[in-house]
């Protein structure tokens, strides 16, 4: 249907397991609070914005003696760590079979290509809106309004899904519907309630 809802889906901790809590601290041999303490103050956000080249990120993310980062080794760890959250692949399959239009709306650097290499996420939905290419991160209003504009639809046509409440609240302020992700079964129930899927 031409007026059917369009899903805009966050990726990390919504579709895909985020290795930030375990694998990344283990890689650096630093507890997560210490990693946040010593890391470069803006490198990650700049990397997600696409304003910092990958090699430059590895050079500055951690100061000596912790850095520079061995980027290829880190990406190998990430490749092995990325996995679908429980029940998500089945839900995406059902959405695809129902011919529901879906797009990513993700704050992430070029490492999204590692997710793609590991999981082939684009079997289900395209990497349409990734901050390293759009240059804007959620919860900035332009992340949502820009997506709707690119798709040529009013924001009210879109349903945004994210595990972060503040990102969902920001989407609602632009006129989108939004679902705070908790689990695949909860998301399925809410999509049924929104009329996207049949029970």
TrEMBL record:
Record keyword Acyltransferase present: no
Classification via InterPro entries: HAD-like_sf, HAD-SF_hydro_IA, HAD_sf
UniProtKB keywords: Hydrolase
One Pfam family here: Hydrolase
One GO molecular-function entry: hydrolase activity
This protein's record includes keyword Nucleotidyltransferase: no
NCBIfam families: HAD-SF-IA-v3 (TIGR01509)
Descriptive protein name: HAD-IA family hydrolase
Organism expressing this protein natively: Lujinxingia vulgaris
């Amino acid at each position: 249907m031409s007026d059917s809802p369009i899903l805009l889906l966050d990726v990390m901790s919504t579709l895909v397991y985020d290795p930030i809590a375990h694998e990344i601290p283990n890689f650096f041999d630093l507890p997560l609070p210490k990693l946040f303490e010593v890391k470069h103050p803006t490198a990650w956000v700049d990397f997600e914005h696409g304003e910092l080249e990958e090699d430059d990120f590895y050079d500055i993310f951690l100061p000596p003696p912790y850095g520079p980062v061995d980027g290829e080794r880190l990406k190998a760890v990430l490749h092995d760590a990325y996995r679908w959250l429980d029940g998500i692949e089945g839900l995406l399959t059902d959405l695809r079979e129902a011919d529901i239009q879906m797009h990513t709306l993700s704050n992430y650097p070029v490492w999204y290509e590692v997710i793609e290499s590991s999981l082939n996420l684009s079997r289900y939905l395209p990497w349409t809106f990734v901050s390293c290419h759009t240059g804007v991160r959620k919860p900035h209003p332009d992340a949502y309004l820009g997506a709707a504009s690119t798709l040529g639809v009013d924001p009210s046509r879109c349903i945004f899904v994210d595990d972060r409440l503040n990102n969902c609240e920001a989407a609602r302020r632009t006129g989108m519907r939004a679902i705070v992700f908790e689990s695949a079964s909860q998301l399925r129930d809410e999509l049924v309630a929104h009329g996207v899927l049949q029970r």
